[in-house]
């Protein structure tokens, strides 16, 4: 079946790009669907749910996601991408359906946690597939295309949620039914497109498999190299980058509705600008970083500082036009624009033995922020009546992370 696909002229690596991009779209439609409709969820559960408790919906999801990162990576190596992805997305679909039937916040937490567990199967499988199948000269740009799926899904999730639930006044569960359907479609697509482990080996060039067997060192890395200052400050930078992004994704719709006077579909549309603006940013800066490879640290630091400034303008703006311009620029310059460059830089500077382990720790640190940011910002909102302080924390973290990253790289370059 795979051989016929190759003969049809549509290369397997191109199928992988489309499949994984669609996977991120589906995941992010789910991830972003609930945050614009927290008030509707609260009302359906009796109206006594605090912002901390609502923010914890996202935190439980990301907790499950983080917990699955290392086990999923191990299982991908052990039994193959297909055998990890399909059961994972079945769990994901069941979790979304469970949330749609929830009669209590505890049941939503349970569904969110299980959704995170199911989604946790995707990251390791996806980047194993891109690493193994995409040609080297197309890898950075192709990865940016795959990553853009998260922006498309995030934007559509917010718009659909705001339009269907807030504007059209459909039950909030509608978004979970839609998510369940999309997840099941992706599960079928994984089964049809992704090769089995045996087929993957058969399609590898013979000389490559021989070299892999005899010449490659075992994937081991010492704690001293894994947590050297250079690596540690990179993890801190990525934590800060993800913190700002996931805090914004989780709470921006609510912030615009409750503190800036946006109404109806305007909430979802304005929030989605962050996601949609990130697509050209990711494609442009990944191209530039590939062209000027020795300037990657400079690209990273400038993008992080500019993203922090745009968040500051977003919070300070009293004019809706300025606020929306700042949101567009934050999307253009923020996480999805800088992430491919950070990952590329990490691949070049991580110890050559144990790159997989380093990337696993790197992603673990980044995703830990997604567990902390939603609940902490909700707690701040309960205590102060505003989410502004949550944005300030994200701004400080971005600036501090960029400065530490620049300092350690400047020192090592001077040596």
Helix content: over 70%
Sketch the topology as an H/E string, one letter per element.
HHHHHHHHHHHHHHHHHH
Amino- and carboxy-terminal Cα gap: 55 Å
Strand content: under 5%
Number of strands: 0
What's the helix count? 18
Poorly predicted regions = 1-5, 205-219
Q: Quote the average pLDDT.
A: 84
Classification by helices and strands: mainly alpha
Mind explaining what this structure looks like?
It is built from 18 helices and no strands. The protein has helices at residues 2-7, 12-33, 38-44, 51-79, 81-100, 105-133, 139-167, 173-193, 197-203, 206-214, 223-226, 229-259, 265-291, 296-316, 320-333, 335-349, 355-384, 388-414. Helix 12 (229-259) runs parallel beside helix 17.
Relevant terms:
415 residues; mainly alpha; 0% strand
Question: What is the gist of this entry?
Answer:
With 415 residues, the protein is mainly alpha-helical. It has 18 helices and no strands.
SSE topology sketch:
Blueprint: H1 2-7, H2 12-33, H3 38-44, H4 51-79, H5 81-100, H6 105-133, H7 139-167, H8 173-193, H9 197-203, H10 206-214, H11 223-226, H12 229-259, H13 265-291, H14 296-316, H15 320-333, H16 335-349, H17 355-384, H18 388-414
């Amino acid at each position: 079946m795979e051989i016929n696909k190759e003969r049809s002229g549509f290369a397997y690596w191109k199928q992988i790009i489309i499949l994984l991009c669609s996977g991120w779209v589906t995941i992010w439609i789910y991830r972003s669907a609930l945050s614009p409709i927290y008030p509707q969820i609260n009302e359906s559960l009796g109206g006594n749910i605090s912002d901390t408790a609502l923010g914890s919906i996202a935190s439980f999801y990301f907790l499950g996601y983080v917990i699955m990162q290392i086990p999923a990576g191990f299982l991908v190596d052990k039994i193959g991408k297909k055998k990890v992805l399909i059961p994972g997305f079945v769990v994901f679909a069941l979790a979304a359906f469970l949330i749609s039937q929830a009669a209590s916040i505890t049941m939503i937490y349970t569904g969110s946690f299980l959704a995170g567990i199911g989604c946790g199967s995707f990251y390791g499988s996806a980047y194993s597939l891109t690493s193994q199948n995409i040609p080297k000269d197309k890898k950075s740009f192709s990865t940016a295309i795959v990553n853009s799926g998260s922006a498309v899904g995030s934007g559509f999730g917010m718009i659909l949620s705001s339009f269907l639930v807030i504007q059209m006044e459909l039950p909030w569960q509608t978004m979970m039914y839609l998510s369940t359907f999309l997840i099941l479609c992706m599960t079928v697509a994984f089964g049809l497109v992704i090769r089995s482990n045996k087929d993957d080996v058969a399609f590898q060039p013979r000389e490559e498999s021989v070299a892999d067997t005899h010449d490659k060192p075992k994937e081991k890395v010492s704690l001293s190299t894994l947590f050297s200052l250079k690596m540690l400050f990179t993890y801190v930078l990525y934590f800060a980058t993800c913190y700002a992004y996931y805090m914004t994704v989780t709470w921006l719709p609510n912030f615009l509705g409750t503190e800036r006077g946006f109404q109806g579909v305007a909430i979802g549309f304005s929030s989605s600008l962050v996601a949609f603006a990130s697509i050209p940013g990711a494609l442009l800066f990944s191209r530039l970083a590939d062209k000027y490879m020795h300037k990657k640290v400079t690209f990273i630091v400038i993008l992080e500082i500019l993203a922090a400034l745009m968040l500051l303008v977003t919070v300070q703006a009293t004019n809706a036009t300025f606020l929306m311009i700042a949101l567009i620029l934050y999307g253009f310059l923020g996480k999805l624009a800088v992430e491919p460059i950070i990952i590329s830089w990490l691949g070049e500077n991580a110890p050559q033995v144990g790159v997989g382990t380093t990337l696993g720790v790197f992603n673990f640190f980044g995703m830990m922020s997604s567990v902390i940011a939603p609940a902490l910002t909700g707690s701040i909102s309960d205590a102060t009546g505003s989410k502004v302080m949550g944005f300030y924390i994200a701004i400080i973290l971005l600036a501090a992370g960029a400065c530490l990253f620049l300092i350690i790289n400047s020192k090592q370059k001077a040596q």
